[in-house]
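Final report, closing paragraph on structural work. Over the funding period we assembled a curated collection of sequence-structure pairs, and we close with a single example.
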Amino acid sequence: MQFLVLAESYKFDGLCIAGIDYDTKEYVRIGHMHNNECKSIHLDEILLNENEYVGLLDVVDITVEKMNPNGCHTEDYNLISFNRIIKSIDIKELEEIYSSMEHKNFIFLNNYYKLKPSEGNTYDKSLILCKVSGFEIDYVLSANGKSKPVASFIYNNRYYSNMTITDMIACGYPFKTGKKTVKGANAFIMVSLPNDDWPKEHGYFKYVSGIILIDKEYSDYESDLQSLFK
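Its predicted structure, as stored:
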């Protein structure tokens, strides 16, 4: 598969990586499957060819096998191997890809930051790419007392707020790069739903799992893994 990377999300001391099939434009989540659940990818697995890291907007040749649908996770593939980075695309090409895709009126049914258990338990999709405006990152205290990043933005003329961010750069994983300041930006974001036991009882949070900022003024928002590892 030729896989366009659009999200590298922090997950249990590893990564959950999502994007689209570059040929079909269908959503894809890759991970290591155990009991039909998508487990994290280790950081060293995205290292290819001596210090060449798989990053956002890379088109990568991967070997995968399709998994059976599991709740809302109908896009999951078991990763067998990253083979090579074919190329990286620019924002212009991403715009063209986005314009060819179907877009929903809401990000998963409504503009709330999570779905009710009854809504998520019957939903059959867990990934969506959105072009947004007014994108901002703030930091709030989570239930365990630690600071976590949350997003607010406008999508399809509707305001969204308090959306938990799992994008690895915003979370400072693994580079401890500190808090990222973003105010009022234009961006592409990947939003994902979880699928484990906790949300089935407490609700399905809509995680901002990938952030691609469009505005040149935010070019210092470090999303290039090559420079982060230097």
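Helices lie at 91-99, 117-120, 197-202, 225-228. The chain has two domains: 2-92, 102-228. We thank the funder for supporting this effort.
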